[in-house]
Structures are given as structure tokens and as C-alpha cells.
Design a protein that fits this description.
Length: 95
């Protein structure tokens, strides 16, 4: 019996980078306070992330400001229409 690699790995296996690039660790704890608040919110709400989405957005915003992740729009990250957000203005004016 052979104890080598599975046959599927030895032929045709290609390493590909993540779709959104790397996600560097926050070695200096620049966004640790917000991350801690988010995790505490999840604990208090039985891991219901819908109650803590505003903190998730704050955390990702901190990471973008500090250069720990690439800048992106909130709609691409699934963080639009949160509680307290201003509704988008309607186009075309009132009739």
C-alpha cells in the first residue's frame, strides 16, 4: 500500500489566489477595539449577525482606512441598508 499524495493532487492541481486578494492580519491591533465590540455583540445576540451588522461595517471600514484590506463599496460587501442609514434619494423627483 502506498502512503503518498492522493492521485488528484499530482496531476492537474493549480493553486489559485483568493478572489478578493489577501486579508492581512491586524498585527498591531489597530482595529481590535471594534472587533471586540462586534464579537461581544454576537455573544449577546446568540450569534445573530443581523443585530451586529453596523459593527461589522465599522470593523471593515477601520480595516480599509488602515490599509489592511482593499477599499470597496458597501454594496459589494453586503452592508447596505443598515439600521440608521439614510434611505437612498429617489431619482426623477416627486410626482
Amino acid at each position: 500500500m502506498s502512503f503518498g499524495r492522493p492521485p488528484s493532487i499530482s496531476t492537474g492541481f493549480q493553486v489559485t489566489p483568493p478572489n478578493r486578494g489577501s486579508f492581512p492580519l491586524d498585527h498591531y491591533g489597530e482595529c481590535k477595539d471594534i472587533m471586540t465590540q462586534y464579537l461581544e455583540c454576537l455573544r449577546k445576540n446568540s450569534s445573530t449577525s443581523s443585530e451586529c451588522r453596523h459593527l461589522n461595517r465599522d470593523y471593515l471600514g477601520c480595516r480599509m482606512q488602515k490599509g489592511l484590506m482593499e477599499q470597496d463599496e458597501w454594496k459589494n460587501l453586503g452592508l447596505t441598508n443598515l439600521k440608521g442609514d439614510q434611505p437612498p434619494e429617489e431619482k426623477g423627483g416627486a410626482k
